[in-house]
Amino acid sequence: MAKTTLDPIVEFREDHRKVRDSLLDLASAAEAGDLARARDILGRIDTMVGPHFRYEEETLYPTLKEFLGDYVDSLIKEHDGAIDTARVAAKLLSQPSLSAEEGKAVAKAARALLVHVSNCDGLNILTERLSKEKLAGLGKHFARSRAEGISLLRWADTIRKGLAAS
């Protein structure tokens, strides 16, 4: 049976480590022209980051408004950029081959996303200030997002788009 709650601080940090490593691996694969490996890594990032972004936007960011106020809106805009970057990388990597310039573009985009990963990980310092009850609620929502397992681009094109329209 799936765990219904988890430690959101520990899991959030571990996700960021995995994304950091995956982005660096993606950059290396793209620069090396290893299209199959780059596709595989991008697919894993898409799968891993979907539940993470969903948890952030639907649960964590609204909770952190008590500390950050409207700054939370800029975090969502950073997600817009990350999603657009993922779409561009997916389009480039879906081609039958990748030119050296395209490989460099994918690598540059992957490395640019590291800034968001690093900045986002800093939110944990604020999350530590939340009550045990709020942390437990965050853990339940994070676990639910993971259990549903909706990829980043699928989530962005369906659930997120629906929330923005309402």
Offer a concise description of the structure.
With 166 residues, the chain is mostly helical.
Head-to-tail CA distance between termini: 34 Å
Low-confidence stretches: none
How many domains make up the coordinates?
A: 1
- What portion of the residues fall into strands of 2 or more residues? under 5%
CATH fold field value:
Four Helix Bundle (Hemerythrin (Met), subunit A)
CATH class: Mainly Alpha
How would you describe the overall organization of this protein?
The protein is mainly α and 166 residues long. It has a single domain (8-165), classed as Four Helix Bundle (Hemerythrin (Met), subunit A) (Up-down Bundle), CATH 1.20.120. The chain has 7 helices and no strands. It has helices at residues 8-32, 35-68, 71-93, 100-121, 124-127, 132-148, 152-165. Helix 1 packs antiparallel against helix 2, helix 2 (35-68) runs antiparallel to helix 3 and helix 2 (35-68) runs antiparallel to helix 6. The longest helix is centred in the N-terminal third of the chain and has 34 residues, at 35-68.
